[in-house]
Design a protein that fits this description.
Elements (H helix, E strand, L loop, with lengths): L9 H18 L16 E5 L4 H12 L3 E6 L2 H15 L4 E5 L5 H14 L5 E4 L17 H23 L3 E6 L25 H20 L5 E7 L3 E2 L8 H14 L1 E2 L9 E2 L1
Parallel strand pairs: 1-2, 1-4, 2-3, 4-5, 5-6, 7-8
Antiparallel strand pairs: 6-9
Helix pairs in contact: 2-3, 4-5, 5-6
Bound molecules: NADP nicotinamide-adenine-dinucleotide phosphate.
Pfam families: adh_short
GO molecular function, one term: oxidoreductase activity
Protein name: Retinol dehydrogenase 11
Length: about 280
């Protein structure tokens, strides 16, 4: 008998399947946002990319806790669908949609103008929207699409809304980064799509490093203002984040993710790393 035969024994398959399901169950310990005692009544929050994935559940959590939530989305149809769902699930009607394309600095400026005109206060800004795996693509403004969406747009937005955040203090800015920033590089020519390798998540990694550098510097400059700025790695979460990757990569992500990754409904308080 060859030692490899042990892998063909039915017990092997049964114990592997059992182990996989134990891991899956253990990873999926339920988390109920309603269990959080902190209320956000009277607080106004903006969440970018709030129509799906992590952003949608952040918006839902804020809504359940009584905040006025502004969902900053680029698609009216997807934004409205998520808005209806969040209103229904939370019972909070103070949820609003404002359109913004974070890859366009013109759109970010118009969005910020509207917010400054319409909102008396802003207590929470969550820079959540992001893309990964895009091929080389320049925006009309001559910026690399991934850099514009993940870093330049959120950076501009934060700075345009900073005075309102300061006048509403205590307030906070949270930027979704990623542990992948460790593989990132800083080179300002990247902003215009120069000297970049468009392979899998290489451009994404660079943008996530910029998120952290700028947020850390902002936090330093905001000391004493009662406005905090943090970058956060949410863990690996089953969302639409892989949608621009080749089919085979998406398939692998989903298979591995089924057992090991988080789903966005319970990510907010599990394994999240503040960077
Ligand atoms: N999922 C993970 O494992 C993971 C790990 C580390 C960090 N993160 C970070 O977490 C954040 C959220 O990711 P996710 O996993 O929830 O991804 P997702 O499911 O793909 O959601 C991304 C959101 O960003 C929006 N968006 C993309 N481009 C935009 C633009 N130009 N203007 C405005 N909105 C735009 C999308 O809107 P549309 O639906 O209209 O495209 C969508 O609402 C990202 O910053 C990501 O880098 C995620």
């Amino acid at each position: 008998m060859c030692w490899m035969d042990v892998f063909y024994h039915p017990l092997w398959a049964v114990s592997t399947a059992l182990l996989a399901f134990v891991v899956r169950l253990q990873r999926r310990v339920g988390w109920d946002p309603r269990a959080c005692p902190v209320r956000l009544t009277g607080k106004t929050a903006i969440v970018t990319g709030a129509n799906t994935g992590i952003g949608k559940f952040i918006a839902l959590d804020f809504a359940r806790r009584g905040a006025r939530v502004i969902m900053a989305c680029r698609s009216e149809a997807r934004g409205m669908a998520a808005l209806k769902e969040i209103r229904e699930k939370s019972g909070n009607s103070n949820i609003h949609l404002q359109l913004v394309d974070l890859s366009s600095m013109e759109s970010v400026r118009k969005f910020a103008e509207r917010i400054l005109e319409e909102e008396k206060a802003l207590h929470i800004l969550v820079n959540n929207a992001g893309v990964s795996g895009l091929p080389k693509q320049l925006t009309k403004e001559g910026l690399d699409m991934t850099f514009a969406t993940n870093h330049l747009g959120p950076f501009l937005l934060t700075n345009l809304l900073l005075d309102l955040l300061k006048s509403s203090a205590p307030s906070r800015i949270v930027t979704l980064s990623s542990l992948n920033h460790k593989k990132g590089q800083v080179d300002f020519s990247h902003f215009h799509g120069e000297n970049l390798t468009y392979l899998m998540d290489t451009v994404y990694n660079n943008t996530k490093l910029h998120n952290i550098i700028c947020t850390s510097e902002l936090a330093r400059r905001l000391k004493g203002t009662d406005v905090t700025a943090n970058s956060v790695h949410p863990g690996v979460v089953m969302t639409e984040v892989m949608r621009h990757y080749p089919f085979i990569i998406q398939l692998l992500f989903n298979i591995i993710g089924f057992f090991f990754f988080k789903v966005s409904t319970y990510l907010l308080f599990t394994d999240t790393i503040i960077i």
